[in-house]
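Hi F.,

I've been meaning to write this up properly since the lab meeting, where we talked about keeping a consistent format for the predictions we share between groups. The idea is simple: the sequence comes first, exactly as it goes in, then the structure tokens exactly as they come out, then a line or two of notes. No screenshots and no reformatting. I'm using this chain as the first example so we have something concrete to point to.
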Amino acid sequence: MNINVMLVDDEDIDLEWLRRRVVSNHLPSLKVAGTAKSGFTALEMMEQERIDIILSDIRMPIMSGMEFARKAKAINPHVHIIFISGHQDFSYAKEAIHLSASGYLLKPVDDDELHEMLMMLCSKIETERKQDLSLTETLKLVNQEILLRWFNEMTPGPIEEHVTDFLAPLLHHGSVVSLIEIDDLAWKIKTMAEDDRRTMTTDVTNFVRQFADEKHLGYVISSYDFHFVLISTLQKDHLSILLNDLIQAFSQKFPFTLTIGIGMYTTEMNKLHDSYHQAQAALSIKWILGKNRLIRDASASEWSPTEKMGSQLEETVERMLRAMLEYDLMTIDDCLQMLFQGNEPIYQKNDVYDLIIRITSKLHAELRQMNENLYEVVKWDSHQPQILFQFETVHDIVSWLRKRFFELSELLYVKKTRIKRKLIDEITDYVSIKLEQKITLIEVAAHFGFSPNYLGQLFKTETNILFSDFLNQMRMKRVCELLLDPTLKIYEIAERVGYKNMIYFNRQFKQSMGMSPENIEKRIRFSDLKHR
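Output, unedited:
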């Protein structure tokens, strides 16, 4: 800020000389705010603009420099006055000292002496300003602490007078309290280095404050654990637009999000306390509604539960387990939504944790029968799921469970697929060995310990071919191999692979291979002669 100096002298020549001398000092913060030829004019200027230093002739007509100084001090007790006089009269100097004058210069004023005097006063004023700013900030922080304590009292008493004086202008046309919370910041910065953590929290705080200043949102107070209290006088719709803009701008700038709860508008001091607690209640249901949003009223029915969970827990978990085994991700997600969206909102985190323990314990018991361990898959201690306590919303917890259960489903599906593939390979090998022994589906199913229907369905699901068609393909393949032996007759080959009816055999062979066995035999033998 500039340091404003005013020059007062009834002589035009002396006034211009003084102006040029002050300007030529080239003190960067010093600015000549004006000149006056009388004390009356100078006093009028002081009422219009802040004056920090006055250089005044001590002897002026009508209103002397001494009388002017007394009235100037009444307007601004902190103004610094330097008297200039051509009379070496001790009585003037003594009266100047009585008026707490900052200096006394004799005409003709020495340039170095004037420069030294102005430089000393500029330095003193800058120091005073820093001290005043520090005191103002201290008082501001004290008021904030008092206001925060008052807001957090369940039954508020009368607020201190100087805080009331501060709030009164804000309440004149109506004010509202909003609570701004930085989502997930507390646990996400734990892994950062100390310097990075300090930088991040400073940047985040500065961003919120700067946005509030630029958009004239209102008065911002830093509260606990990355929360901010905003007292605003903006109209409801305009404030909502700007707060949504803040949410969007913040998420674009940082790897975090903001959630904001708003209270009611009021013109009464005591009801401002109610507005704060309404904003607090609105912010608390972030647990249900989700984060990165504006929540206006905790009583508003923004959450629409679908059905009660309690009595259907067993059935829903069993359905979810079946979905995991079938790699049915959509059904897994449906089950999770059903489990965590009952008719009664889950306001307490402990209720959610209890529900999760019940769900996972049942899943674990079911999977143990399949030689699988749920807790090893989700990398989570069943008795101390500490990771869950860092989440701020039900949505976050469901998202974490969804990811873990999808991973579990994929693992189970892959294992199941490998087991089934191994079984199909074993069936293929067994059929190949037994092919010339008139093998049937009933015999294969009995060998592997399944019912014929189950094995037939399993085989069709895994190979996309009926077992009977597979068996026929294997026989035709064996026929082609046996046709290479010139000592075997076609009817002998047909009988070896289980065909007694030659007409049926020929029809099946031609349907499968596209030509008769005789033609295949000729082609094979011709090809063999050609390569000899």
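Notes:
Strands lie at 3-8, 30-36, 53-57, 80-85, 103-106, 175-183, 219-222, 227-232, 257-266, 294-295.
The CA atoms of residues 284 and 298 lie 8 Å apart.

If this format works for you, I'll send the rest the same way.

G.
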